[in-house]
Amino acid sequence: MALRHASAFALRTWPLGEADLIVEMFSLERGRIRVVARSARRPKSRFGSALQPFTRSHVVYFQREKDDLGRLSSAEIERSYFECLATLETAPLAAYMAELIIGFTPEHDPAPTLFRLTSAVLDSLESGADPELMARYFEIWILRISGLLPDLSHCANCGRDLARDAWVAEAVDGFVCGRECGGGGSVTRLAPPARTLLAVVLAHSPRELAGGEVSRGAVRALEGATGVFIRAQLDRTPRSLRVLRRLRGGVR
Ligand SMILES: [Zn+2]
């Protein structure tokens, strides 16, 4: 049995037996891991609030094989986002980010760039960045890091230059030059403000972006495109995204 150390965000938990929890975590050193936290549901648990969503802790755990659940020995909080993730807008966003991390990363596969992205977005939320803008930021960059953000310079079907106009095509999971290249599926025009915002997101840190002026209309318009590509990767609309949309009175 190996003793492991890691810096890890808690993503979600499930009850196990009478007092234990299974905790899914996203660690810098080993990617996504699942560990059992013994007696974590007792009032005076030694893990305290370290297992709250997106609290980052230095964890020590035992692991036999990769497929086995690890056993959490200790969790010392490095950074807590508890307060900033406790609002009606940020709590569902945290659940959405966790669902994306789980959907985009295999277990036991380090993803240090995604780990840094997660930290940067959380830091910006804590400094008061707009949660909806940060949701788009996180979506675009998790697609980009995973190599799944489609090329916006050329039509995915015919290769034509997309300098003037781009459309989001569900059937080809990419940007195309018009309906005729949409592969027979649903095709939506990428509105110019959404296109500009996409370029801005790709060129700036979340903190830089949060400091500038971004219109709500552009954020919403971009959501249509990111939603198509996220759905293509996960084969469904993330449940937490539906909650987010419902909470704000939903576009869909
Ligand atoms: Zn085309």
Quaternary organization = single chain
Strand element count: 8
Q: In the CATH hierarchy, what is the architecture of the largest domain at level 2? A: Up-down Bundle
Residue runs with pLDDT of under 50 for 5 or more positions: none
Please give the alpha-carbon distance between the first and last residues: 49 Å
CATH class group of the largest domain: Mainly Alpha
CATH superfamily of the largest domain: Recombination protein O, C-terminal domain
Strand composition percent: 15-25%
Mean pLDDT, to the nearest integer, reads 93
Number of domains: 2
Bound molecules: zinc ion
Your description of this structure?
This protein is an alpha+beta fold and 252 residues long. The chain folds into two domains: 78 residues, Nucleic acid-binding proteins (OB fold (Dihydrolipoamide Acetyltransferase, E2P)); 158 residues, Recombination protein O, C-terminal domain (de novo design (two linked rop proteins)), CATH 1.20.1440. It has seven helices and eight strands, in the order βββββαααβββαααα. The longest helix has 19 residues. The site of zinc ion has 7 residues, from loops.
